[in-house]
Write a structure and sequence with these properties.
Elements (H helix, E strand, L loop, with lengths): L20 E5 L3 E8 L2 E4 H6 L20 H4 L3 H14 L10 H7 E3 L3 E4 L7 E4 L3 H11 L16 E3 L5 E3 L4 E2 L2 E4 L8 E4 L3 E2 L2 E7 L18 E8 L2 E2 H7 L13 E3 L4 E2 H4 L3 E2 L19 E2 L2 E7 L6 E7 L7 H9 L10 E3 L14 H4 L7 E2 L5 E2 L7 E10 L2 E13 L3
Parallel strand pairs: 6-22, 8-16, 9-26
Antiparallel strand pairs: 1-2, 1-5, 2-3, 3-4, 6-7, 10-11, 12-15, 13-14, 13-22, 14-16, 14-17, 18-19, 20-21, 20-25, 23-24, 25-26
The structure holds manganese (II) ion.
Length: 415
């Protein structure tokens, strides 16, 4: 498959990808978009020019919108067909390839475009589905001998997060303030977090509303998943350690989470399916699955000090996830909890087995005991003011590359 748009071999946004996002074009006009190489394509105008409007089930120009929700809600058969149509339109020798007027109006270079928050997110849930991460945290905060709690291998542990503070890549985050209790103190103190962290995660986006009482089974779960994003679940470890008993994360997490602007569809990730880690003991029937439900997606985290170089501090992979998305969604709805279009469900921190694959500063520095050394000679136990965290993710196989680009965020001093 070859596009008439040129792009480098290692582009995340190959003809095999066709992600969806929302962009401001030339600082004046907002529409849903896709991207190929370094070209951002205005889908609303492309629809108006008759290139994608003949897809069955696509009656109105849903791309003329400030979010992707209306498009996503059309459901899997329609969004799948639209993606294939766009792919076809971008192929070498297509009608569009020779239509200079439409190309002129619909194609923008990256520097003419700013990416916006692509979704209205009604609900956000965060899981805790990497066995390596849960084990590391259990060792540090509880008991090294019994790092995993008794429920962990029987259900995908999760909590309800905060949707209002999810922001798109490029949005600065202020260091949160809150209560912490220093180890040597008898009562808590108030102030800016001293242990600010990132969590390397991926999130999936839902495409339908269900009624209360309804459940989604493991085998049908993927029909409800539009696509995936990179997800940085910023976390304040000192606030977390003091507040989390007995109900779990609260202010340590809800001050901000960042997502990548391009939603990569499950269809684009299809070639990268892979086996999951073996689940032992056997799970209950409603969590059993068949086939490959996991995806081989390379993940990287970079820390960039103010005016400094990017330091690669973590290399992980989504395939390490113990619980897959289908199990997470089946578990989430098994009690009759309703879901909504645009909901984002995040994986939980994705750590691998090696020390350079840990998906948080907490684990990389082992709670600050082994600071990271940066290329400028400085050290980090946790994130400092004006540090930028950049996460990148891509899948690659047999010369086909499909990537997410990046999610980037800078930590500003506390307000
Ligand atoms: Mn998290």
């Amino acid at each position: 498959m070859k596009s008439f748009v040129d792009y480098p071999q290692n582009s995340d946004f190959s003809i095999h990808n066709i992600p969806f996002g929302v962009a401001v074009f030339n600082k004046e006009y907002i529409a849903c978009a896709t991207r190929i190489g370094d070209i951002v394509v205005d889908l609303a105008t492309l629809f108006d020019y008759g290139y994608i409007d003949d897809v069955e089930g696509l009656q109105e120009n849903v791309f003329e919108a400030y979010t992707l929700n209306e498009f996503i809600e059309l459901g899997k058969p329609v969004t799948k067909a639209v993606r294939l149509k766009i792919q076809e339109v971008l192929l070498e020798g297509s009608k569009l390839a020779n239509d200079e007027k439409t190309i002129e109006e619909c194609f923008y270079n990256l520097d003419e475009v700013k990416m916006l928050m692509p979704l209205h997110i009604p609900n956000y849930t965060d899981f805790y589905s990497s066995i390596e991460h849960a084990t590391n945290v259990g060792k540090m905060f509880r008991d090294p001998e019994n790092a995993l709690l008794p429920n962990w291998k029987h259900l995908p542990v999760g909590y309800h997060g905060r949707a209002s503070s999810i922001v798109v890549s490029g949005t600065d985050i202020h260091r949160p303030k809150g209560q912490t209790k220093p180890a040597d103190a008898t009562s808590p103190v108030f102030g800016p977090s001293k242990q600010l962290d990132f969590e390397l995660e991926m999130g999936f986006v839902l495409n339908q509303n269900t009624e209360m009482g309804e459940s989604i089974s493991v085998s049908e779960a993927e029909d409800s998943i539009f696509g995936m994003v990179l997800f940085n679940d910023w976390s304040a470890r000192d606030i977390q350690a003091w507040e989390y008993v007995p109900l779990g994360p609260f202010l340590a997490k809800n001050f901000g989470s960042s997502i990548s602007p391009w939603i990569v569809t499950l269809e684009a990730l299809e070639p990268f399916r892979t086996v999951s880690p073996k689940q032992e003991p056997e799970v209950l029937d409603y969590l059993k699955f068949e086939g490959d439900k996991n995806f081989d997606i390379n993940l990287e985290v970079y820390l960039q000090p103010e005016n400094g170089a990017e330091n690669l501090i973590c290399k992980s992979n989504y395939k390490f996830m113990y619980w897959n998305m289908s199990q997470q969604l089946a578990h989430h709805t098994v009690n009759g909890c309703n879901i909504e279009v645009g909901d984002v469900y995040a994986s939980g921190t994705i750590s691998g087995t090696t020390e350079d694959s840990f998906g948080s500063m907490l684990e990389l520095t082992w709670r600050g005991q082994n600071p990271l050394k940066l290329s400028d000679g400085s050290e980090r136990k946790f994130i400092e003011d004006n540090d930028t965290i950049i996460m990148r993710g891509f899948a690659e196989k047999d010369g086909i590359r499909v990537g997410f680009g990046e999610v980037e965020g800078k930590i500003l001093p506390a307000r």
